[in-house]
Amino acid sequence: MFESLGAGRPCIRRHHDKVAWTQSLEQLIQLRATGTIGAVIDLIKGQAHMHLPEAVLDREQRLADAGPEPVEGESRRIAQLRRLRDVAYTELMAVAAFIDGHTPFATKHGVKGAEFENVLVIVGRGWNKYNFAQMLERLDPGPRQTRSNPSRAIATCSTSRAPDRSADWRCCSPRF
How far is CA 150 from CA 138, 143, 157, 161, in A? Predict the structure, then answer.
């Protein structure tokens, strides 16, 4: 937990430190259930023994520099940060659970070498980085291409995750 917060190991050297951590964590648990993202950030910022990641501190500083109230012509990023602070922390926990794969369908990153019993691949032109239709049209059984082809790399990875069954591909067109 401490490494994910960018704080290293906690310094607990005496009973007072342990009491401070216990109280802070109890407050944090309460805020996670009832508070906003901003309230959680403010609690952590207010604790001498807890530290926020640099990226969060940088964004908080940008927001502080912009002032406490929204102003006409404020940048879109600052407006987003203001709105983000008002989101219930439980919403963030729900997104984290989704990203961690606690859903029937999820994007899996970092699966090099991993195998899955079933693989469903859904592709469409809504992706800005990949063009699977073009890749499939240009498949050449000849010599291997020397240029990097991200679409081909993703296709190869997705089709090699199911050792006993072939991957099931579904194509769809984005509706704009």
Answer: 14, 18, 11, 17
Q: What is the DSSP string of 46-109?
A: T-TT----HHHHHHHHHHHHH-SS--TT--HHHHHHHHHHTSBHHHHHHHHHHHTT-SSS----
Residue 40 has pLDDT above 90, yes or no: yes
Residues 69-126 have pLDDT tens digits of 988 989 999 999 999 999 999 999 988 877 776 555 555 566 666 777 767 666 665 5
Residue 127 φ/ψ, nearest 5 degrees: -75, 135
C-beta separation of 122 from 172 below 8 A: yes
Cβ(20)–Cβ(49) below 8 Å: yes
Partners of 172 in the β-ladder = 124
Helix/strand/coil for 169? strand
* Burial (CB count within 10 angstroms: exposed 0-12, middle 13-18, buried 19+), residue 124: middle
